[in-house]
Design brief:
Order of helices and strands: HEEEHEHEEHEHHEEEHEHE
Distance between the termini: 45 Å
Structural class: alpha+beta
Strand content: 25-35%
Shape: globular
Number of helices: 8
Radius of gyration: 19 Å
Number of strands: 12
């Protein structure tokens, strides 16, 4: 599939029409919002703006979420219009985070990930204790709280267990590496998340093993595309397995409600 056609497919399935457990989807002529039903950060996943209306719509959305008393993230992709959307958001007080490379792989039956043997100490995580282990791992690596993330993972795993698959590598009864994936409703994509490993256990192939476990599960369930927002650290590994960079994504955090 040509890149432009793949971007169109990605945009339609994962941005315009995606539904997310725990969020209320609202579509207007200008944006697609997802409103948290659990007091978490909401987000705008897609927009359809022009140079003429961009500033007006940004102001409207800031006011809309301010009335809800909810912070939100506006996810901007490098192919979005107008081309200076993130700069316009910055002018309105948004904080622009570092870009992430949107990596996509089409899974063919002969792909190497589908035949890779995963280590015996890699296991699927299905219970609350395992998710708490993931939260502890992420807290240790990134030095910020992942409690909200853990609550969301457990909530989704209870509500629609088939939509979330979590994997971890344990050594000496300690979780040392973990990753998970969401299967997207009415979509041919699965989205990959995590892939963090404790520093003392890096270089042992755990990132690749977790990637293989998720690819095999996705293929088994009939999904043909994997996508991940990649950091500079993980991008070279993904490229080694044939992932291509579809675009860049810029998380843009809303201004403070007090501003």
């Amino acid at each position: 599939m040509e890149k432009e056609a793949l971007i169109s497919k990605f945009h339609k399935e994962l941005r315009q029409y995606a539904e997310v457990e725990g969020y209320k989807r609202e579509a207007t002529a200008d944006v697609v919002r997802h409103i948290s039903q659990f007091g978490e950060k909401s987000f705008i996943i897609a927009s359809n703006l022009t140079d003429v209306n961009v500033e007006k719509v940004i102001e409207q959305e800031v006011n809309y979420f301010r009335k809800l008393n909810q912070p939100f993230e506006w996810k901007v992709y490098s192919y979005d219009k107008p081309s200076n959307l993130k700069e316009r958001l910055a002018q309105q007080g948004f904080t622009i985070e570092d870009p992430e490379a949107v990596m996509v792989l089409k899974l063919e039956p002969q792909h190497a990930l589908l035949s890779e043997t995963t280590p015996l100490h890699l296991q699927e995580i299905t219970d609350e204790q395992g998710i708490q282990d993931i939260v502890k791992l992420e807290d240790t690596i990134w030095h910020v709280s992942h409690l909200e993330m853990g609550n969301r993972l457990w909530r989704v795993k209870q509500a629609i267990p088939e939509a979330l698959h979590l994997y971890g590598v344990y050594e000496d009864d300690q979780l040392v590496s973990a990753a998970w994936m969401y299967t997207e409703n009415k979509s041919s994509f699965v989205s990959l998340w995590g892939g963090s490993t404790l520093p003392d256990y890096r270089g042992r192939g755990y990132y690749s093993a977790l990637l293989a476990a998720r690819a095999q599960k996705a293929f088994e369930q009939g999904y043909r595309y994997l996508t991940v927002d990649a950091s500079p650290m993980s991008r070279p590994i993904l490229e080694k397995f044939g992932f291509c960079c579809l675009a860049y994504a810029y998380p843009c955090d809303s201004p403070s409600n007090n501003s």
